[in-house]
Amino acid sequence: MAAAAAAAAVGGPQPPQPELPAPGLSLDKAATAAHLKAALSRPDNRAGAEELQALLERVLSAERPLTAAADGEEAAAAGGGGGPGAAEEEALEWCKCLLAGGGGYDEFCAAVRAYDPAALCGLVWTANFVAYRCRTCGISPCMSLCAECFHQGDHTGHDFNMFRSQAGGACDCGDSNVMRESGFCKRHQIKSSSNIPCVPKDLLMMSEFVLPRFIFCLIQYLREGYNEPADVPSEKDLNKVLQLLEPQISFLEDLTKMGGAMRSVLTQVLTNQQNYKDLTSGLGENACAKKSHEKYLIALKSSGLTYPEDKLVYGVQEPSAGTSTLAVQGFAGAAGTFGQLDSSDEEDQDGSQGLGKRKRVKLSGSTKDQSIMDVLKHKSFLEELLFWTIKYEFPQKMVTFLLNMLPDQEYKVAFTKTFVQHYAFIMKTLKKSHESDTMSNRIVHISVQLFSNEELARQVTEECQLLDIMVTVLLYMMESCLIKSELQDEENSLHVVVNCGEALLKNNTYWPLVSDFINILSHQSVAKRFLEDHGLLVTWMNFVSFFQGMNLNKRELNEHVEFESQTYYAAFAAELEACAQPMWGLLSHCKVRETQEYTRNVVRYCLEALQDWFDAINFVDEPAPNQVTFHLPLHRYYAMFLSKAVKCQELDLDSVLPDQEMLMKLMIHPLQIQASLAEIHSNMWVRNGLQIKGQAMTYVQSHFCNSMIDPDIYLLQVCASRLDPDYFISSVFERFKVVDLLTMASQHQNTVLDAEHERSMLEGALTFLVILLSLRLHLGMSDDEILRAEMVAQLCMNDRTHSSLLDLIPENPNPKSGIIPGSYSFESVLSAVADFKAPVFEPGGSMQQGMYTPKAEVWDQEFDPVMVILRTVYRRDVQSAMDRYTAFLKQSGKFPGNPWPPYKKRTPLHPSYKGLMRLLHCKTLHIVLFTLLYKILMDHQNLSEHVLCMVLYLIELGLENSAEEESDEEASVCGPERCHDSWFPGSNLVSNMRHFINYVRVRVPETAPEVKRDSLASTSSDSLSSLQSSRRPKVLQRENSGTAQVFSLVAERRKKFQEIINRSSSEANQVVRPKTSSKWSAPGSAPQLTTAILEIKESILSLLIKLHHKLSGKQNSYYPPWLDDIEILIQPEIPKYNHGDGITAVERILLKAALQSRMNKRIIEEICRKVTPPVPPKKITAAEKKTLDKEERRQKARERQQKLLAEFASRQKSFMETAMDVDSPENDIPMEITTAEPQVSEAVYDCVICGQSGPSSEDRPTGLVVLLQASSVLGQCRDNIEPKKLPITEEEQIYPWDTCAAVHDVRLSLLQRYFKDSSCLLAVSIGWEGGVYVQTCGHTLHIDCHKSYMESLRNDQVLQGFSVDKGEFTCPLCRQFANSVLPCYPGSNVESNLWQRPSNKSIQDLIKEVEELQGRPGAFPVSISSETNLSKEMESVMKDIKNTTQKKYRDYSKTPGSPDNDFLFMYSVARTNLELELIHRGGNLCSGGASTAGKRSCLNQLFHVLALHMRLYSIDSEYNPWRKLTQLVEEVNSQQGNEEQQPEVPILYHDVTSLLLIQILMMPQPLRKDHFTCIVKVLFTLLYTQALVALSVKCNEEDRSAWKHTGALKKNTCDAEKSYEVLLSFVISELSKGKLYHEEGTQECAMVSPIAWSPESMEKYLQDFCLPFLRITSLLQHHLFGEDLPSCQEEEEFSVLSSCLGLLPTFYQTEHPFISASCLDWPVPAFDIISQWCFEINSFTERHAEQGKALLIQESRWKLPHLLQLPENYNTIFQYYHRKTCSVCTKVPKDPAVCLVCGTFVCLKGLCCKQQSYCECVLHSQNCGAGTGIFLLINASVIIIIRGHRFCLWGSVYLDAHGEEDRDLRRGKPLYICKERYKVLEQQWISHTFDHINKRWGPHYNGL
Predict the structure, then answer these.
(1) Staple partner for 920: which of 853, 958, 998, 1486, CB 3.0–4.6 Å?
(2) Cα distance between residue 259 and residue 252, in whole Å
(3) Cβ–Cβ < 8 Å for 553, 487
(4) Burial 1597-1627 (b: 16+ CB within 10 A, else e)
């Protein structure tokens, strides 16, 4: 069918048929389509086909240029008007109509979907999509699922994680090649292909005709849009073309989503070669097609590719055979050529002709075929589409379309082959690309879908030479950045290495190609082909050798390096990714005996490559000095394959080892690295900058160590086990440059090393030997043992979180992903060696995570210092491990002192490596050990405890691994002369230990003390000078050079080397000899050396025993233990020797020596019998004395400094403990206001800046350090107890109408509607939102001191976390954050007794006094008229307080700037602080005065400042509410005359607490106690009346009439004024006169509570109504008069507080039930004043009954404020919010966040929601929290705090199963709420302590 149509098309365009209607209305389109469909359905469809072709020619004409610049006349051709855009849309409409064959397009889509047989999900996603990966269900580690399939499947208990896709991916649900079927989701479990009906022929018929033309049209556009300019086309142009094509590509993408049926049609179209040939050949007479084809050829050529027909143009003549094989495969590709012109040009200009040639020669040897790099022949649409996709640098839309097709199996194969065919071209484009990161991601997005499938990878490898192509392309890619290697022989080196500074390496551009290679090598079948193909292995080793010796470091000896290059990271990354990971991939297939052949191949070519390398760098036997490279991938390949061969394949090691000479060469460079590590740690490379330390650390760091240091050490172990041990040991000491130090003489000259580095280099050498001899990672440990050892080492250094352990344990990096091969054993090993410590919270401390800590038995038996040293990146970690070990021993009582690292038994060696132990039994090592023991005993310089420790460790290793039990016969003691010669008789340590050495001849400098003496043997023993040994680690040894008795390491080594060389008789080496030896002139050759003979007369055993005496500080301290307890020799494992210091170690060694030989046992006993004479005091020459003194002085100075520092630290610590306790202020320092004897009324303050004490005076006022901050915490109180939940569905929304702030707002605006503004502003408090909270740390300072302190902060350029310009600073003493200073009012601290004396004035007198005092404006001790420093400061602090909050929270008046506003604001500040303190105390005062808030409170000082300012605004006495409370007003023409004027607020509508504050602040300070009590009493009467009114409104009509009646009966009893029944009935009767109770109507009834009111419930109601007022009043009294608050039970709070306030008459008995009314003390007859108050209300309700009722104060039982309640599982939050769209721009925000106070969804940093340069979070923090915002960042799971202009990351309240945060959801494990953390967060919010507790603040510049 399709073929017929295609054939019809060949004839070229036909003239349009006459009956074809003009294309225009969509109706016509539909009709045309239907007509054509009918025509095509006829058996003879030729005419129909032609007609369709003609129509498509017109509609899809690609002649319309994409740019407006070209002529526009063709634009009209398709009948569409306007620009190209319109025409394109028109064309798309036509296609849709034609596909649907006249029907509706949507119905067509639905119809096709019905036939979708795909059982795969195949959803394609792009970067940043959130997907899941389940390791339990995955077969391929790249497996991933979309969220929907994941949640629909059952993965409970699986090892899964959520991840944010980096490069994009596709869902694998339903694909059993990649994942197990058990993990499929419900939709993809059914194998649905069986029950899908067959697709009806006519449904997709039109598609088969239309789509080829459509795709061709798209290709023409792509050809058209790509102009090949001289340089790379600018991204802008490409993007423009892509934008225009967006609708077309989207259309194709939609087609792919129609399911399997449509995909198979598309596959046919894309892969049909005939269609492609007919449409694109450009042979027809159509000019447009020709032009298009030409552009295509130009594009190919400019890409450095040829079209096969144009071979001659390009000038590459190929052997025809090659071409024919390619043609047969229909494929361009075998292996690569490197003749690309541009690279050779560059080299020639370089001038390094030889190098260029060599480079090409070397590489061309590996090429197999000229075509991989240069030939591309496109045979189908798919191939050309991919070509353009690459040309346009992988546009996202195209990638998605190509991937969406993958569920079609036939397409998948075709596409994979096409991809492979274009592989070289992809690499070239990638190299040129500017956006290589994006492009890399897109490439991998595609390739990971193709190559993860083993079957597919195998097929392509076999049919398309995938491996050849990949290796060639990689080789070719690296070839572009090669430079000459400077290693070893700079002038003559022929080796080339990659240049790590090149962008290719620095930006990891090679990553996609390497990652594909690693991916395919993970398939067994592919890897086998690779390992069998010798040619490929050779090429690959060639590739690896480019990295061998890269990034060479040369030690700077004079100047500090000018520019620290950071290329090293690129080098390490390159070796890991390009060399090591493919190696691990290959190794994973060499696990069994059958794979021996592969290992042999790799080892063989590896050795060849190494030999080539040695030749190329001209290497003989000495490495060049002062240079090191950490990159030896060839050595490491060799080592790892050796290890695998022995461990898994049972290969005989010797069969794959080279000859001795090669082994000697092999060991040089890895050994050089070990020595350089020691040099770097000894600070010998400081002039190279920090980066060299970075390299040393990276080399051993957990991600690199098993690909770097481990293979190096293993290779050295292999070399050591096969080479002559004396040669090896002397090489080590020579490499570490400490040969000169190893002399018996007390002084020596080291020609290659400065004295200050000697000790640490010696420690380095010995430590290296210990590691070399005791490490068993590749020498016999099983994988589980290795895992356990690694884990123990990490846990011993520090407690670790689960994730950091996973990160720190080096796993064989499985090439394909983050899968940990041993993750199952990981958990079991972890639980075996460690205990979990759940996270704990210190208040105010940092948030802790769940940690694992080693079990006690691990410390006891498994702590292995050697492993710790090997794995530490920072030297301090070794110390940390030792400290923890010490602490364990102390705690468990095993050892009290400072222990030495314990000696740990090792896993037995694998038989192949037995030779390693010969190192311990060679004379060279014994001489070194003997010399060092002697030097330590004689206190020579430069030897440390660490040296001794390592020496003893080596001796012990030797005893543990002694070859054979020696017979006692051979042990006859030899004569002295023999010793001179050879030091030791044999090579066994056990027998050499007891061998006595009598005399040693040494070469010493002439100044040495040995020379001054006559050389009498008797005296020379004690003549060794001793020099202070200062601490230092690592040892090297060199014996006396010159005569036969002198042993020289270097000479020994040269001799051995010469023997080997002669054996292999290579003359070349002879020639070079002189050159190398001249570099290393024999260190002994300095002229001023002379020879001396020392008398020693010691053996190793005697030295050990003397050392024991020296260490213990007692003569004869060693006593052989077996003399007392013979058992010890039979059962030697004694726990008491396991842990301890040097003494224990010596005892343990002596015991082992005695066990191994009876002879030793006897000698030890003998030595112990001889009493050692005391060592005579040493004589010291003057010169020595000088150096000695200097050393001593230095040492002492160092100790002094240490001591000082320690003392300072402890002081600081103790201060911090007392001062910084912000969150648990139980032990807080109280105010630093010392009250002396009561008669002194002046308070004395300490200034924390100048340290002087004194009172605060008007001239020099003192102030409290305070932090002012606006707070809306109070406004968040709600009146129901159920906390609000964070919304996690669309339905749940939070409305803030029930918050305290909202209720108060409504009330104020209601009052302002009906009453006089100035009066309204006195009837309420503001500050529920944006109130100013004042807190202090309690420290005081002089205000002038503070000003100079601020000045110095301003000039201090150090970056501070606060803004000095805004007045912010930290308290000079406790460093607490503050921003103002509150002046202390001069005068007494606690108000003196004078004010406290209870007066017996009647209440009436007091009322009068109060009124008079309020009326007197200047009644201040400090007169306001005189400007004093104090009053100035008070004004400035008042300004600060006002500026703390935003204007909208200060101005509520209708007339802006009215004084009433300020008045309201000031008393509200007092209210805010009292209310907040109440909340901090838990909402009530039951706990009494014990609470801590008081200690830090500054309310007393604050009150003085506020009162001073309040007195400036005297209230007009007519309006003073005090009058209304205490006087009966005669009925004037009240309210009749002035209708037009708004009335004042009725007194019953006033907020009583506000009245209290107004009254008190209007009084002159300090206030008298009886005046205070008087005010409280008066206000209580009003409050009680309000309670009665509220109660009366609450109940229904019947209750009211009943109460009215019962109360009226008692009205005339004696204490009627103190009976609530009487008062209630009176209130009801008064209010009934008005309309308050009317309009009850029907609607009210619902609200009225149906409860029956009993006297008890009424009493409770009245008490609850009054309690908030009593609490605030008691607090106020506590602060003003310093009285303690009594503590009580909750039920008696009312009575306790009222008696404390003096409301209760003193004679009141508490027996009978307490009646609140008994507190009343009416200033005027109760009934008169009540009726006066009720009258005001009645006159209001005449007109506004509804509002009148609403305004009656309802009881305010506000609950404590809380943050929103969060769900248990984080995933519920994440799934809802991370896809939620922004309300402003309806896009999904990049960083969504949600406010934890009110639940608002905001965009962090979102520009869409920005208003006047404020981003949304900052804006919201101002509106919701008056500058404090608490946001949960959805994509990071962390909480961010915004406080004013600063912000900080607080941490996360969601933790995983191991108690860890997962910031940024990197690990993607399930997270659960941590309630304790959330409580801590809420506590900090409520107590306003974010600023004090969180340390890391930064400015946000309104950008959050």
Answers:
(1) 958
(2) 12
(3) no
(4) eebbeebbeebeeeeeeeebbbbbbbbbbbb
AA identity, residue 111: A
Cβ 607 vs Cβ 662: under 8 Å:
yes
Dmax over CA atoms of the chain, in Å, equals 138
Kindly report the average pLDDT of the chain as a whole number.
78
Q: What is the DSSP letter of 1030?
A: P
Strand partners, 1794: 1801, 1832
Q: Which amino acid is at 1369?
A: F
**Beta strand pairing status for 1828-1833 and 1801-1803?**
unpaired
- Cis omega (within 30 of 0) for bond into 1566: yes
**Residue found by looking up tokens 């470091």 in the block:** 553
**76: nearest Cα among 67, 86, 66:** 86
CB 726 within 8 A of CB 922: yes
Condensed to tens digits (0 to 9), the pLDDT of residues 74-91 reads 333 333 333 445 677 777
- The structure's pTM equals 0.80
- Collapsing DSSP states into helix, strand and coil, what is residue 657? coil
Can you tell me the mean pLDDT for 573-596? Answer: 91
Q: Are 947 and 1033 in contact (CB under 8 A)?
A: yes
Q: Cβ(1805)–Cβ(1819) under 8 Å?
A: no
Average pLDDT over residues 1101-1130: 80
| C-alpha dihedral, 289 to 293 to 295 to 296, nearest 10° | 140
| Amino acid of residue 811 | E
pLDDT at 1842 over 60: yes
Report residue 1283's pLDDT band, with 50, 70 and 90 as the boundaries.
Answer: confident
Q: Which amino acid is at 438?
A: T
- Highest mean pLDDT, choosing among 485-494, 1115-1124, 1343-1352, 1518-1527: 1343-1352
Reading the block at residue 1296, the tokens are: 């803030």
List the beta strands (DSSP E) in 61-106.
Answer: none
DSSP β-ladder status, 1253-1254 and 1244-1246:
antiparallel
Query: Interhelix angle for 524-532 vs 596-616, to 10°?
Result: 50
Start-to-end C-alpha separation, the chain? 62
Given a contact cutoff of 8 angstroms between Cβ atoms, the answer to whether 1682 and 1569 are in contact is: no
**Is the preceding omega at residue 1668 within 30 degrees of 0, hence cis?**
no
* Dist CA 452 CA 521 (whole Å): 10
Do the beta carbons of residue 1335 and residue 1837 sit within 8 Å?
Answer: no
d(CA 606, CA 541): 6
pLDDT of residue 1888: 92
The full DSSP string for 1700-1728 is HTT-S-TT---SSPP-GGGG---SS-HHH
Tell me which of 1401 and 180 has the higher pLDDT. Answer: 180
C-alpha separations of 1164 from 445, 926, 1125, 1554, 1737 in Å: 73, 18, 16, 94, 111
Residue 1784 tokens read as 């402003």
pLDDT in tens, 238-253: 777 778 788 888 888 8
- pLDDT by residue (tens digit) across 831-886? 999 999 988 766 555 678 889 999 999 999 999 999 999 999 888 999 999 999 99
Residue 334: pLDDT above 50?
Answer: no
Per-residue pLDDT, 983: 80
Strands (E), 1733-1870: 1792-1795, 1801-1803, 1828-1833, 1838-1843, 1846-1851, 1854-1855
pLDDT at position 214: 84
DSSP track, 1832-1846: EETTTTEEEEEETTE
- As given in the structure block, the two tokens for residue 305 are 């590719």
The angle that helices 205-225 and 235-256 make with each other, rounded to 10 degrees, is 170
Of the chain, the percentage scoring pLDDT greater than 70 comes to 77
Residues 646 and 911: beta-carbon distance below 8 Å: no
Q: Which residue has the tokens 């040995």?
A: 1010
Is the per-residue pLDDT at 1068 higher than 70? no
